[in-house]
Write a structure and sequence with these properties.
globular, six-stranded parallel sheet, Rossmann fold, two-stranded antiparallel ribbon
Length: about 220
Amino acid sequence: MIGIAGGSGSGKTTFTEKIQSRLNGNVSVLHMDSYYLPTPPKHLCSKSSKPNFDHPEAFDWDLLKLHLGQLKNGESIESPVYDFKSNSRTQDTERVEATSVVLFEGIFSLYDPAIRELLEIMCFLHVDADIRFTRRLHRDVQERGRSMDSVIAQYYETVRPMYMKFLDPQKQYADFIVGEETDIAASILAAKINELLEYKGCHDPSAVGLQRFGIDKQEDLHGA
């Protein structure tokens, strides 16, 4: 189970896809965005009464930890589906198979201690704020039907301060810190994971440890 964290617009989904394409065997992906609460908590609303989606309390942690634990134990799950245009959870679900490798990506994927205990490798995408903002602006306008003014207002009201308070500190838990250019980093991580898979037949695969694969704590792939 691999955790991939980073701020909104840091490229987590793209990086996850790059790793997935380089792995041997079956791979599942779990998106933390699917685990927003069914409706945004009112007490987290900004001064302009807009939902704060970048606060830890915006997520359904109980369901998320339950599903991650089930995947870790070899049980497939039905992940919720969240609609960002209506800011609500739909009635649909998406099946996520319990495969040899689960890539778990999201802004708070390294935030909770219990979840960190489930992860073999933890990654953080450290990307400059101007790049993250530009990516988020394009995404929300083009894919989520937002106005440019609303995206900019949300960035200054909640996204930026929440990143500084809650997201950036997750770097301290990462085994890899990855920069904007992710091709080389994805290849290196995929090679580590493929090597780890070769030892999956041992009694406790997690006991193989990162050091066997040459992974030093806080290895910086920022220039990769």
